[in-house]
Specification:
Helix content is 37%, strand content 18%. It contains 17 helices and 24 strands. Helix 3 crosses helix 6, helix 13 packs across helix 14 and helix 14 runs parallel beside helix 17. The strands form 6 sheets. It has an 8-stranded antiparallel beta barrel. A 7-stranded antiparallel sheet has the order 3-2-1-16-15-14-13, sandwiched between helices. Strands 4-8-5 form a 3-stranded antiparallel sheet. A hairpin with a 2-residue loop joins strand 1 and strand 2. It has 3 domains: 365 residues, DD-peptidase/beta-lactamase superfamily (Beta-lactamase), CATH 3.40.710; 95 residues, Beta Barrel (Lipocalin), CATH 2.40.128; 138 residues, no CATH class. It is an alpha+beta fold.
Length: 624
């Protein structure tokens, strides 16, 4: 009886919380307080919001300015915001429409729908649309040319994909790793099967029938919408500066611009069995399939749906998608069991953290946790130590010079004390307590952290409960960031000592004649080549840092200065070969001091290690 009463009470609390969304005055006051506080803290120029509930728009509102210079306010009905990767949801709806028509098979080899290029058979298992929809095709990431500064570089989708086809780095369906190019391939499949460009398809099959008149994938925007486009802003030394319109060559994956009011049409269709204002976007069975679980890293973490990310929290199912360009940060989140949806977008680069904090606060108020948190296990510090280590997020480029970005996307798990783990990802730090043999929950919430072991019981992967699109691979030995840093520091110290010490020693010897009974140092020619070798190495490292002083630039293409700098490693290879030849010819020559020969051997070895490290990060050759 107590259990029945508890369940009934929990359902009553959920119902009462959801019902309170109909109190538009209280809802508006709550959201106003949240959004204005976050905008002030993050110096966000403007934002837009829309919330739907039980078939109605219960709140839509603009905050701040679409244009700071002209003081143009944000209007939720007509001000367009870039929605970033929420654009992908239009790709996935398009795919499911064609599946419903019998023109696509989610489990068929995607190559049968491609004509201009083919995905190579790197693994026995072919890539399918299901893999693309769950971000499990096993592609590496690819960021060069992901954005463009003007429309002159925009090309047909097939041409871009043929040129930028990412490498397959793992078998399909093993891990989810977010892939823009995977979604681009799905959009191109829609083009090939429908006989229309994706621009045409999405306009005819989704935007026009949903009356989304203030939404467009066009770049630049059609003339009648350009005046409604919110400007993007960047915080530069605490000054908010206007930025140019962002062009996305792989446009189906992130180029859409939309008003908050228009996004309510899309959300309502997805919440109302695929139907909006008499138009059937998707039949109910196909939409139900789209919302179902399609891939899951671990039983205790959120799954991937067919295109939808599972953002569930507080025991409530939440599905949707986030979207980020450089200057715009957006979220569309749906609670299908409660017929509720929320859309939010901000137009300043500093607004990135806002939308998830907004969702968490919204959920805590209107859909609070009703189940008791799992009780932590009693464990030992030694048991916890098995999970400690460095984990590399699996979304990064493998085959080009941007592989080095993998160092920026690592999380560290350490033992806090004998009862919990400490997770560090960037500047974010969280504490997790164990609830079973491979699962932990955040100390004060139900958010989970799960690990996977291999057949020998060693921990090899970590999964973040609320991020079904990523996995972390445990690193050891030379693959850890600490090892790579130590190697680089040793190389730099060696280079600086070589460049500074030898010229100084040379001038000192000229001033103070060397004693006749001392042995000759290593040959001047060999030392000169070594000096040049390390000088070139320092020039390369300095040039590489200067060429990428603004790391955002690489997404627009490889800067000319960097292309020039990439010639230097070939020169270092040549000087290293000459160094090794000099060492071999003189290593046994007793005319030269033992310490001189040992020192030169160390220089040769260090240069070889430097070349290995450059090659490890794809910095030898023109890998772009």
């Amino acid at each position: 009886m107590k259990k029945i009463l508890f369940i009934a009470f929990s359902l009553l609390v959920q119902f009462a919380s959801a019902q309170s969304l109909t109190d538009s005055v209280a809802l508006e006051a709550f959201m106003d307080g949240l959004i204005t506080a976050h905008m002030k803290e993050k110096k966000v120029a403007g934002a837009t919001l829309a919330i739907v509930h039980q078939g109605k728009v219960v709140l839509k509102k603009g905050y701040g300015f679409a244009d700071l210079q002209t003081q143009t306010p944000v209007h939720p009905d007509s001000t367009l915001f870039r929605i970033g990767s929420i654009s992908k949801m239009f790709v996935w709806v398009s795919v499911m429409q064609l599946v419903a028509e019998g023109k696509l098979d989610l489990n068929a080899d995607v190559n049968q729908y491609l004509t201009g290029f083919q995905i190579p058979p790197t693994y026995d298992q072919p890539i399918t649309l299901k893999h693309l929809m769950t971000h499990t095709p096993g592609f590496e990431d690819h960021v060069i040319n992901l954005f463009a500064k003007d429309s002159t570089v925009l090309r047909p989708l097939g041409d871009i994909l043929k040129e930028e086809l990412p490498a397959r780095v793992r078998p399909p369906y093993t891990q989810s790793s977010y892939s823009n190019h995977g979604t681009g391939i799905a959009a191109h499949v829609v083009e090939n099967v429908s006989g229309m460009t994706f621009y045409q398809y999405v306009q005819q099959k989704i935007l026009t029938p949903l009356h989304m008149d203030f939404t467009s994938f066009q770049q630049p925007l059609p003339a009648h919408l350009q005046k409604h486009m919110a400007s993007g802003y960047r915080d530069v030394n605490h000054l908010v500066k206007i930025q140019d319109f962002e062009y996305v060559p792989l446009y189906p994956v992130g180029a859409a611009s939309a008003s908050a009011e228009n996004m309510t049409h899309f959300m309502l269709a997805l919440l109302q069995h695929g139907k909006y204002n008499g138009f059937q976007l998707l039949d109910s069975a196909t939409l139900a399939l789209m919302k179902s679980n399609a891939h899951q890293h671990h039983p205790r973490v959120n799954p991937m749906r067919y295109g939808f990310m599972d953002l569930s929290q507080n025991g409530v199912t939440v599905i949707g998608h986030g979207g980020d360009t450089f200057w715009f940060h957006s979220l569309m989140a749906l609670m299908p069991d409660h017929q509720t949806g929320i859309f939010f977008s901000a137009n300043t680069d500093t607004g990135a953290p806002i939308y998830m904090k907004l969702l968490e606060a919204f959920m805590d108020r209107y859909f609070p946790e009703t189940q008791p948190l799992p009780i932590p296990m009693k464990v030992t510090k030694d048991w916890l130590q098995k999970f400690a280590g460095e984990y590399e997020i699996n979304r990064y480029p493998h085959d080009d010079l941007t592989k080095i970005s993998a160092l920026m996307s690592r999380l560290t798990v350490s033992v806090q004390d004998s009862s919990k783990l400490r997770l560090t990802l960037g500047e974010e730090v969280s504490l997790y307590v164990p609830i079973d043999s491979t699962t932990f929950r955040e100390e004060t919430t139900s958010e989970t952290l799960a690990f996977e072991r291999d057949k020998e019981g060693r921990v090899i992967h970590v999964y973040l409960g609320g991020l079904p699109i990523l996995a972390g691979d445990k690193k050891a030995g030379l693959d850890t960031s600490s090892s790579q840093t130590m190697i680089l520091v040793f190389i730099l110290v060696t280079a600086l000592l070589t460049i500074l010490y030898w010229p100084l020693a040379y001038f000192l010897r000229r001033k103070y004649q060397r004693r006749t009974n001392t042995k000759n140092p290593f040959p001047f020619t060999g030392k000169s080549i070594a000096w040049l070798n390390y000088f070139l190495l320092l020039v390369f490292l300095l040039g590489f840092m200067v060429a990428l002083s603004d790391p955002l630039e690489i997404v627009y293409g490889v800067p000319g200065a960097l292309k020039f700098v990439l010639v230097i490693p070939f020169l270092i290879m040549i000087t290293t070969v000459f160094m090794v030849v000099f060492l071999i010819r003189n290593v046994t020559n007793s005319r030269y001091s033992v310490w001189g020969r040992i020192g030169y051997a160390v220089l040769c070895l260090t240069s070889l290690v430097a070349l290995w490290q450059l090659n490890y990060w794809n910095l030898i050759g023109f890998n772009y």
